[in-house]
Amino acid sequence: MTSWRDRLNKFTGKNRYVVCRIFLHLTGKEIAPLLGILNQAGRSAIESQGDLESVGESLVTICENLLQMDAFWQSAHNEGDVFWDEGEAGDYFNSLSTDSISRFKSGSELESTVEDLQESPLTIPVTGNIVVMISVAYIGEVPELETNLAARDALTTALKVLINLHYQGKLEAIGVYFSPSKLGDELTNDQILPNFPELIPL
Fold it and tell me: What is the pTM of this model?
């Protein structure tokens, strides 16, 4: 239901800025390749110096892979807020990014170097859990993202909508973070609840 303030701001012609974040927890031995995809997206973002179009293409790749791996979805959560001031929306987006980075062994870029790999043992542990955190900002209303996404159908729709928003050029900011951030790091079952207490089983 549209609030009185929303109607008033729409009447006065103010832009409606929405900032939201989606958490998706995947579990299973088969999810390890997803870390490679996420790290490649991080490398691409760095190489493009944060160009929104390039980051958006990486977001599409990530969403497509998450959709293909729906059999391994374990839990999810989403949150966000509406703003009528661009600066306030930007501050909130930055706060979500800071929080995502601070999560357990989270990252958005490839941290391993050739030297790291050479010094690693021949057998490295493969994590059975990955938590992906996607933050976006857009102008307008997107009901599919502004609802409870802790249900498989709703989450599937939301990921498809993110892809469409990129191709429509409607995303104002994009941030993707994930835990663990590199091959060899583990996110155990015992670490999920204290570090990601918001997650709701799907």
Answer: 0.85
